[in-house]
Amino acid sequence: MRRIVSGALTAAVVATAMTVVASPASAVGSCSSPNFCLFENNDFNQGNTNHWLDLRGDDFDLRNNYWYNGDGSQSNDSIDNETSSVKNRRGCDVQLWQHVGGTGAHTKSINGTNDGFLENNAIGDNRLSAVDMCV
Amino acid sequence: MFAKICAAVLVLATLAACASTAPKPTASVPPAVPLGPAVPATAAVPADQLALPFDRYRPSFAEESEIGRARTVLAQACLRERGVRLDLPNDVRSPGVLDLTPNLRRYGVVDEATAAQFGYHFPRTAAEARRQWENEQWSTSLPEPQRMALFGEGGCTEQADKVLTDVDDDFFVDADFQSLHTSGAAPQVAAATAAWRACMARQGYDYPDPNAAISDKHWNLDATDIPAAEIDTALADVRCKTSTDFVKTWHDIEIGVQQEKIRRDAARFTTLADARANQLAAARQVLTN
Fold first, then answer.
1. How far is B158 from chain A (nearest CA, A)?
2. pTM given for the model
């Protein structure tokens, strides 16, 4: 059972507050529903540092989110602009925004899909700073 | 035949009408979000004012809706074939603010009405907020066997794309992000940014660019409350963008960047357009059967 780290999962909060889900441990690349799963490295961290974060609610400023380690402990590494791959098991589509506040370019993660290579070398890691759930 | 769920819409009336074993929402408390008026969304800025060449390579709202409905039909059939009792919500919704003007927030907050009501918070109508909350409640409260049948590896959502033909648009997404970056680095945009900065300074604000203003750590963009300071800053931001032609300048530059990209990679864009057309045709075939 995943432990809710922040924000009570109530109807009054879900739609607006970040809902981060943490687990004592996470196998590399794993993502269970109803989570939207972010990974620091390409190919869902395969062969790389297992930094991950699972979300269930909107988050329009990822600067105050930090990666979790494979053992479930939280790192001090902010996830802002560092997401390289995602898996969508949220149960709905998720809009990924380039900048804080849901501005800039955006792309939609269709429910049930994976994207292993968000990173674009031409512009570095400046790809993801806000997430809009169930659009 | 299977379909991926596009659970973008969850109307309360539809949920109530579903004769299924799907769980009802666990709470009836409406979301405490900064809500707009209880009327259908209207375009904050006419879509054509922010239209870009890449837009024709994305599905329109109507086309996305058709594809979403087809996914639902296929997923429902898949669940039936697997003996899973679960009625899926209909994928029917009215266009939201971003559907009406897809590039509305590409250059930040650009209209006074949005700034006055939402500051830098993401704008949502009451209907959008409720639909989002209901979607989240529905997907979160699914029993595990149904959840796995729908969303698990090899589940019915995964099967849908095999029927609807998945569209590989990775290069397009990269190009889209890149065009904003490239156009933003143009000298004309730099000059417009400097003019914006000077305009803001005259009003007592010290931000190097609009992105810095919305990213000010004094704002909590996930909080329900929107402080007056945030609204005032957003209004000043928009007014300075208007007086300096910031958005028009950047938009005009980006039109040229995208046109050039389409010209240089004509074959890839043609392939993408064909893939989208094939997906839409497949979706319409599902819906008419």
1. 6
2. 0.82
